[in-house]
UniProtKB/TrEMBL annotation:
Positions of the catalytic residues: 186, 311
InterPro entries the UniProt entry points to: Acyl_CoA_acyltransferase, GHMP_kinase_C_dom, GHMP_kinase_C_sf, GHMP_kinase_N_dom, GNAT_dom, IspE, Ribosomal_Su5_D2-typ_SF, Ribsml_uS5_D2-typ_fold_subgr
Functional note: Catalyzes the phosphorylation of the position 2 hydroxy group of 4-diphosphocytidyl-2C-methyl-D-erythritol.
Keyword terms, alphabetized: ATP-binding, Isoprene biosynthesis, Kinase, Nucleotide-binding, Transferase
GO molecular function, one term: ATP binding
Binding site for ATP: 269-279
Gene3D superfamilies (UniProt xref): 3.30.230.10, 3.40.630.30, GHMP kinase, C-terminal domain
Protein name: 4-diphosphocytidyl-2-C-methyl-D-erythritol kinase
One of the Pfam families matching this protein, by short name: GHMP_kinases_C
Gene (UniProt): ispE
Pathway per the UniProt entry: Isoprenoid biosynthesis; isopentenyl diphosphate biosynthesis via DXP pathway; isopentenyl diphosphate from 1-deoxy-D-xylulose 5-phosphate: step 3/6
EC number: 2.7.1.148
Length: 464
């Protein structure tokens, strides 16, 4: 039987939960059975992992998913964990688990991770012995990174003596092959327009909150100077794509012959006010600067970014920030830990046209960081204009307003609500009306791109 491995889709969540339930049946009679029977994969958490590209499925000819692997980046640092791997018992013994494991480890290596960790059972042949065959070694279970998992085991009554933690070191990524980079989305926690420059651009004040969710950019260095985008982005021709424009802009500063193949996994809605295109461009600038050994400093990269779009510098610098000017004068902020329900009304709002709207308030009195921090300043100058012109966005704001204070991000069309806990954000997202799409994302002070860059730098220790 042939199968292939691909990224899981959100509509496969139920099928994957069913695979997990079926796989657990193999533990009947084992000491872990009682615990496995009671605790199952939370679908909403799995859905969030799928949205972050951390789940892969094995699919057979009929299109049926028969196994999956789920990586968990929560551990932080240079390691990534295997949260779950299951294959339908009816499809066991066919190398599907091994292929899923290799696929996920290959991705982790290309993303610059140094190690894959997992927790499993010592005495079950398809657990620890299987992983040992695939390069994992038992490690000290008192290591701090396993404390949380052990605590959960205790709560769930899991047989602690049979629990082992295993690690597989990953070789450094081959920098001449594909490498994988995050391009996080942002929301604007408020947005005020305080003036207009002679060139027509608007002076604004905003707070950019970077998120832990976004697009994925894959890069493969070329030595013939070619810049090629290998994936289609609907509505964006190759030459107009900000990833291609960013690479070309950087080329002038890179060693002769520097080129790249580029793949983009678009997850962030385009023209949604979440800065997806700007973030893609920033990721290309930052990652190719490292891969090409171009040696540009952050200020120079941010200036190149500004030439591509007002929102690009914040993604290059990679800190949630208070912004002024056209969005390029940035003061990093350390913001409280918050989660966001981001609602996509599936509407395209043209940024340029909104900035030209005659009814836009463009002479607001300047706000201060303290008025923002006190919660007094949360409005978005575009919101009344977008509400009046785009009824779908107005409907999304009204629905989300039912749970708290909904806000527009940037010039829209996406709207969001800030919450104190991931559980509350997920509970709201679960109730998302048909016709809108909800995403749950965590606010980050430091961009996942900077975290990835640090991982890659750690690979050879010389700043590459
Ligand atoms: C409104 C914001 C808020 O974060 O975000 P989005 O809604 O795009 O995410 C940004 O200011 C958008 O930045 P970005 O999308 O990079 O804008 P650009 O490509 O530079 O400009 C698009 C058009 O918007 C207008 N523009 C943009 C920024 C600015 N400060 N003043 C402007 O007048 C210009 O007419 C420009 O032609
Ligand atoms: N890689 C890209 N991803 C998304 N949009 C892109 C890209 N390259 C160019 N664009 C163009 O930039 C526009 C704005 O994109 P985006 O940054 O996603 O939204 P926003 O500026 O509203 O936050 C899109 O409508 C698209 O035409």
């Amino acid at each position: 039987m042939t199968f292939h491995i691909e990224r899981a889709r959100p509509d496969q969540v139920d099928a994957l939960c069913a695979i997990e339930r079926a796989a657990v049946e193999l533990f009947r009679g084992h000491r872990a059975w009682r615990c496995y029977r009671q605790v199952s994969v939370p679908p909403e958490v799995l859905r969030e992992a799928i949205a972050r590209g951390l789940v892969w499925v094995a699919v057979i000819g009929s299109g049926e998913a028969v196994g999956f692997i789920w990586l968990d980046a929560e551990e932080g640092g240079d390691a990534i964990g295997v949260a779950e791997m299951d294959v339908l018992p009816s499809h066991g013994q066919r190398g599907i688990g091994a292929a899923l494991l290799e696929h996920a480890c290959g991705w982790a290596r290309r993303a610059g991770y140094h190690r894959v960790d997992l927790g499993t059972l010592a005495d079950v042949p398809w657990n620890a012995p299987f992983y040992a065959k695939h390069g994992f070694q038992v490690v000290d279970k008192t290591r701090p990174e396993f404390a949380f998992a052990l605590e959960r085991d205790r709560e769930n009554g899991f047989p602690e003596d049979l629990r082992v933690f295993m690690s597989r070191p990953l070789p450094p990524p081959d920098l001449a092959d594909w490498t994988v980079w995050p391009a996080p989305a942002k929301v604007n926690l408020f947005l005020r327009i305080v003036g207009r420059r002679p060139d027509g651009y608007h002076e604004l004040q905003t707070v950019f909150r970077l998120l832990d969710w976004g697009d994925e950019i894959r890069l493969r260095v070329r030595t013939d100077g070619g810049i090629h985008r290998l994936t289609d982005v609907p509505g964006v021709p190759e030459e107009a794509d900000l990833v291609v424009r960013a690479a070309r802009l950087l080329q002038a500063h890179a060693p002769a012959g520097s080129g790249a193949d580029i793949e983009v996994d678009k997850r962030v809605p385009m023209g949604g006010g979440l800065g997806g295109g700007s973030s893609d461009a920033a990721t290309v600038l930052v990652a190719l600067n490292a891969l090409w050994d171009a040696g540009l400093d952050e200020d120079t990269l941010a200036e190149l970014g500004r030439q591509l779009g007002a929102d690009v510098p914040v993604f290059v610098r990679g800190r949630s920030a208070w912004a002024e000017g056209i969005g390029e004068k940035l003061t990093p902020l350390s913001l409280p830990g918050r989660w966001y329900v981001v609602l996509d009304p599936h509407e395209h709002v043209p940024t340029g046209a909104l900035f030209q709207a005659s009814e836009l308030t463009r002479n607001a009195p300047p706000a201060t960081i303290s008025s923002f921090a006190s919660g007094e300043t949360v409005e978005n100058a575009f919101a009344p204009v977008v509400r009046a012109r785009h009824p779908r966005v107005a409907a999304a704001l009204d629905w989300l307003d039912g749970f708290g204070r909904a806000r527009l991000s940037g010039s829209g069309a996406c709207v969001f609500l800030e919450t104190d806990s991931v559980e509350r954000a997920e509970a709201i997202a679960e109730r998302c009306p048909a016709g809108f799409t909800a995403h749950v994302a965590k606010g980050e002070d430091v961009s996942p791109l900077q975290v990835a860059l640090a991982r890659f730098r750690g690979v050879d220790g010389n700043g590459k």
